[in-house]
Each structure stands twice: as structure tokens, then as C-alpha cells.
Amino acid sequence: MAIRCLLALLILQVALARDYYDILKVPKGAADSVIKRSYRKLALQYHPDKVKGSEEEKAAAAKKFADINHAYEVLSSEEKRRIYNRYGEDGLKQHGAQGGGGGGGGAADIFSQFFGGAFGGGFGFGGGEEEEQTPKGHNVRVDLEVSLRDLYVGTTVRVLRDKPVARPAKGTRKCNCRNKVVTRQLGPGMFQQFQQQECQECPNVAYARETEALNVAVEPGMSDRQEVVFFEEGEPLLDGEPGDLNFVLRTRPHVRFERAGNDLRHNLTISLVDALVGFSTEVEHLDGHKVHVAAAGVIVPGHVVRLPGEGMPLFEHPDRHGDLFITVTVAFPKALTEKQKAAVRETFKGLHDEL
Asked: Residue 212's CB: how many other CB atoms inside 10 A?
């Protein structure tokens, strides 16, 4: 019994452990420069001063921002990264090398190293020197079809990416060309300014095609047309950084459910008898669990039953859900026999007078 409890505890710890590479959206073997650039982009995206919305959305962004900073603190350290790769987050704790982990001053310090005096005691973006912009290749946008069930429970889609990669080639080339402003004095009080191009000789390169497998994480509650970004997986650029690869989620229509924000809508057809006396039935949800639906009394076509908490999970809050709205449609018989008509008339005799 004790061994079973220990195994369950270990499994729970593994499930709850954070994947620092996934947080920074980089592969496990990523170079330090790739980790650094990915951190820079994510830190700006989730910085509390950059996120607009409700207090809950801002709180979620602040937590994400702290996780991003903690992940970078670990992966940017050769010692911490080595321990993490071998023993995971628990190993960092045992070696006392986990770092800040909770944001606060640690997150501010790491962020300020990238963006100069951007904090000034708070989270503002004023001050500091503007970072030099590095040329980037073109971003690539790819539509990725997913099912409504994928967006409900989450999934991982494996995609093969065929891309051009720069490889060493024979010879040299002129690169890093830039225009330099030159000032020449022509005489007393007379100056001439002109631009002069400077070039450097660099090793030559050639493009080759390379196929790489990417795992696109579709998280519960993601929305249609939401983008999943793979930094520097876009088109390469000589003497610059590669662009990004953006997967745009496209939801395939579902035969039974329709999404409306965080809510779900479903059409339920019942018989005329059920419409007159009430009904009780079950509807199979996207993940296979059964949802009980019932209504008493006479139900008119178009009646809506609302089931709280049976809608889509909220993105980054998968423990919370929208609602499920079920619209009732009544299936009328195509025809009645004379005997059935007489029985109906007898059954509802005097009902018109009561109404």
C-alpha cells in the first residue's frame, strides 16, 4: 500500500512539473542565443504593463510572466540547465539551484537586464535605451486544422516542417553592407556630405532543404484563429535572424456542437409526445462524458435548456468552463391515421376552451 502511494505521489509530481523548454517555446537542444531571443519576445508579450483586459486576465499574464522569467533563469545558467535536464525541477530544489521562481524582484531584475532601466521601481516601459533591431526573415503563417474536441480536451499535433537552411559553401561573399555618411570639407565654410557603402568579406553559404518534426501543443480552450508561435522557425535571413513560424488554428465544423466564445450550443430533437409530457435524456459530450438534459411540462419548439459549466474550458483556466445551451426541436409526425386523429381530438377535447 505504501509503495502504491509513493508511486502515485511520484506520478503526480511529474504531472505537475513545469517544462521550462515548453514555457519558452524552444527545443531542448536550443542554443543560448535562441533561448535569449525567445525570452525577450515572450517577456514583452506577457509583461503586466502590456496586457489589457480583466483583472483575471492580467493576473494570468503576471503568472505567465513569472514562469517565463523563472524558466529563463534556469535555462540561461549552464549549471542549472544541466541539473534540470538530468533531474528535472525536483533536482533543482535538491541542489538548491532553483532560483527565484516566483517572479517579484527576480523577474524585474532579469527583465531589466534586457531592456535597460525600463523598470524604475515598477513595471513601466519608460526610460532605458532602445534595443538595436536585428533584421529578420519573413514570418511563415500556416493554417492548422483541429477538431472542436481537440480544443476541448487539448492535444499535440505533429507537423513536418520543410524549410531552407543555410549551409557552408565554397568561396566568400560580400555581406553586412551598410551606408556610412562621409563629410568632406571643400573649402572655408563649405562641406559636402555623401553616403559611402562599406562591405565585408564573409564565408559563402548556400540554402539546403531540411525536414524537421514539430509538435504543436493545442491547449484546452484555445480559440479559432489563435496562433501558436515557433520562434525562428520561419524563413532564414543571411546576416540576420530567421522569421517566426505561426500556426493558425482553424476549427473543423462539428456535427453536433457549435462554439460561441466559451459557450457551446447543441440542437436536441425530441418527439411530439416528449414535447407534451416532458422528457429526460442524455447527450454525449465532446470528451465522451454524458450530460443529463431534462424538462418538465409542455415544451414548445425553440425552448432552450442552459447547463452551466458544460461549455468550453477557458484558455489558461481549464478548471473553469462556459455554459452549454441546448435548443429543443420537436419532431412532428408526417401523417396520422383517422383513428389516431380521433384519439387526439378526444384527448384534447375541451382544451381550447381552457386556453
From this structure: 12
